[in-house]
Amino acid sequence: MNQKIYVAGHRGMVGSAIVRNLKAKGFSNIVTRTHAELDLTNQAAVKLFFEQEKPGQVYLAAAKVGGIHANNTYPAEFIYQNLMMEANIIHQAFANGVRRLLFLGSSCIYPKLAPQPMSEAALLTGTLESTNEPYAIAKIAGIKLCESYNRQYGQSHGIDYRSVMPTNLYGPGDNYHPENSHVIPALIRRFHEAKVSHAPEVVIWGTGTPRREFLYVDDMAAASVFVMDLDKAIYDQHTQPMQSHINVGFGSDVTIAELAGAIAKATGYQGKIGFDPSKPDGAPRKWMDSSRLIQLGWKAAVGLERGLQKAYEEFQSQ
Ligand SMILES: NC(=O)c1ccc[n+]([C@@H]2O[C@H](COP(=O)([O-])OP(=O)(O)OC[C@H]3O[C@@H](n4cnc5c(N)ncnc54)[C@H](OP(=O)(O)O)[C@@H]3O)[C@@H](O)[C@H]2O)c1
Predict the structure, then answer these.
(1) What is the pLDDT of residues 160-170, one digit of tens each?
(2) CA geometry: angle at 221 spanning 149 and 219, to 5°?
C-alpha cells in the first residue's frame, strides 16, 4: 500500500492500537491529526484535510465515547458529534477518491433484547437500550452511510466502505478513571489498590453471574486491518449490501466472578472476593456472534489471562 493511510482518532484506545499494528507491519505512510489540529465535526476543516492529504485508505476510529452516566447526561453531544464526524469523514473520503474505509461501531447497535449471541442480522430488529440510544443511533447511521455510499457509488467510483462492531475492549490506552471507566480497568484499579492497602476483601456489584465478552485491543486492531484488507469478492460473499457490518468478538465469554478472579490473579491480590447482590446485575449475558469473522479466517490471539497481565503492566507504568 503506497497510498497514505489516515487513522482518525489515532490517540484513542482503538486508533492507537491500529497505528501500532500498521507500524509493526512496516507502514510508514500513516497520516494522523490530533483533535486540536482537526475537529472532525467541522465540515469545512475535514474537507480541506482530505483535499490536502488525499489518503487512499481511512480507518474511522474517532468517536465521542463514554459510559452510561456521560451518555445520559450529554445525549445531544453524543448523537450530534458522532453523526457529524461520520458524515464528514465518509463523505469527504468519497469526494476525494478514498476507495477503502473502515468504520468502527459498537455492540450497542443491537437491540436490548437481541438473542444471544448477537448476530449481525439482529441489527434494527428491536428497541435499543435507552441509556445510550442516541450514541447507538449515530453508530447505526455510520454503518448505513457506508452501505449507502457503496450502493450508490460502489460501481461507478470503485468505493468499498466497511464496518466492524467490536465487543468490550481492554488493554493499552484504556481509561482507568476511578468512577468513569469500564469494568476491566475499574477492577484492575480496585484490585491493585486493595493489594497495596492489604484490604481483606474486594466487594463487586451484583451477583457475579452475568456473562460478558472481552477482547484485547491489539486483537481488535489486528481484526480491523484484516477486514480492511480482505479481498472485495470475499468480503461480498460473506456480507450483504444492506447488512455489511462484521462483529469482532473474542468468541467466548466469562462470568463477572470469573473475570474478578482473573484480575485478582493478574494484579497479585490475595484477599477475598465478595459480591453485593443488592446491586443491579444488568443483562444476564452479552456476547457477539463472531462466526462471520471466524469464517473469513480471523481469530483472537490474546487470551484473557495474558491480556490482563499486559493491561496490568500498562496500568502500573502510568
Ligand atoms: N473501547 C471500547 O471498549 C470499545 C468497545 C466497542 C467499540 N468501541 C468503538 O471504537 C471506537 C473508538 O473507541 P475508543 O475506545 O478508541 O475511544 P477513545 O479512546 O475515546 O478515542 C476516540 C478518539 O477520537 C477522538 N475524537 C473525538 N472527537 C473528536 C473530534 N471532534 N475531532 C477529532 N477527534 C475526535 C478523541 O480525541 P480526544 O480524546 O482528543 O477528544 C480520541 O482520540 C468508537 O467508535 C467506539 O464506539 C470501543
Answers:
(1) 999 999 999 99
(2) 135
